[in-house]
Every structure is written in structure tokens, then in C-alpha cells.
Amino acid sequence: MDAEIAAIDVALVQFKNEFGHYPGGNTAEIGLALNGANPKKKVFIELRSSEEGLLLDPWGRPYRIKFTKENNPIIASFGSDGRPSPDDITSQK
Fold first, then answer.
1. How far is CA 38 from the centre of its chain?
2. Ranges of each domain in the chain
3. Which tens digit of pLDDT belongs to each residue from 54-89?
């Protein structure tokens, strides 16, 4: 797993430990919550982000953050080509 994806995963777990649940909303809202837009204004991760709150991968594209039916986070980057393909970088095992 990519180091930044692992860091986002850790930040999500820390948020859940702090508040009892993962941050909700779309990917931008999750990024904002991890960057301090939460009730305690606590920053869980410092990573490149867009003005909208999207956490950006090394190519300047947004990481995708979603949750499984079991409420486990999946973080993904489409990689250097910016398109979904088998070589995407993901937290999913």
C-alpha cells in the first residue's frame, strides 16, 4: 500500500477513535473533516488538498474515499494515468 494511502487510512481510524465513527459525506467532506473541519477542530492528516477539501495524490488528482458495506474504508488513487486500471493504488486488499 502506498505510504500516503496508509496515512489516510490511519487518519480515518484516528478520527473514528476520537468521535466513535468515521467522517461522513462525500470525499471532499471527509478530507475537510480530517483536516480540522470537525467539532474539535482537530487535524488528523496534513496532506496536499484542494480548496474543496479533496486530498490530492502525488499527481494532483483527488484520492477516492469510500466505505464498504461493513463500513471499512477504501482509499484509492488512479495513479499517474488518472484513469481506472488494474495498476491503481488502493488500500483494498
1. 15
2. 3-85
3. 999 999 999 999 999 999 999 999 888 888 877 777
Instruction: Give the three-state DSSP class for 27.
Output: helix
Residues 6 or more apart whose CB falls under 8 angstroms from that of 52 comprise: 28
For helices 3-19 and 27-34, the axis angle rounded to 10 degrees is 80
Q: DSSP states of 31-57 as a string? A: HHHHBT-STT--B-----B-TT--BB-
Contact 54, 37 (CB under 8 A): no
Q: Please state the pTM of the whole predicted model.
A: 0.89
Which secondary structure element, helix H or strand E, spans residue 29, and what is its range? Answer: helix 27-34
